[in-house]
Amino acid sequence: MERLHFLLTRLFKSPGRLLGYLTLAGGCLLGTFVSAQEELATLAPRVVEKRIIGPTTMVAEANSELNFKARVDTGAMTTSVHVEEWAIEDESPNMEENVGKKIRFRMKNHKDESEWLETRIEEIALVKTAAHQQTRYKVQLTLCWNDMRKQVLVTLNDRSHMKYPMLLGRNFLEGDFVVDIDLNKRPKPEVAPIEEASAAGDK
Q1: Radius of gyration of the chain (CA)
Q2: Exposed, middle or buried: residue 110 (CB in 10 Å: 0-12, 13-18, 19+)?
Q3: pLDDT tens, 108-141?
Q4: HEC string for 54-83
Q5: Which residues contact 109 (CB under 8 A, 6 or more apart)?
Q6: Which DSSP state fits 93?
Q7: What is the DSSP letter of 161?
Q8: Are 123 and 153 in contact (CB under 8 A)?
């Protein structure tokens, strides 16, 4: 107690020293507060503004510059594109052995426009449908939607019997899009024929 009284007496007799101690203590507290704020900022979830996409849309493939009518399917894991034909370097009858090899393939869009692309086979996928199951090659493509470019794995598939040559799966949608199934719907205005409208006006 006597020691504490002695220290306080010395501090108050020397205002400069007291001010120095107070400034040092304040700086330490401020630094701790700023560090805590910075740590909280790193832990806080980042708000990402997602784009709204309809059940059907237009998508371009970056390298070929082909535009595709695409159907959005949140139930499909992987994006798929229509391919007319392909050629694989040193092709093996075992599809798994072709992973990593070069592949040239010809994509075709809804306007019957087609382009050849060359890339590597990234992996294969087993796709099951109600009728059968099929093994397909996957390649990396860059797809463009409005102002957005996104690299995704795309399965190469014969979609000639389908209305849309491209299907956008969850690997394209996730993290960036919200699907609005009513987005593309446009109400049709009810317009009366001229004769009926004139007749109604005469009554």
Answers
A1: 33
A2: middle
A3: 999 999 999 999 999 999 887 767 788 999 999 9
A4: CCEEEEEECCCCCEEEEEECCCCCCEEEEE
A5: 66, 67, 68, 69, 82, 165, 166
A6: S
A7: T
A8: yes
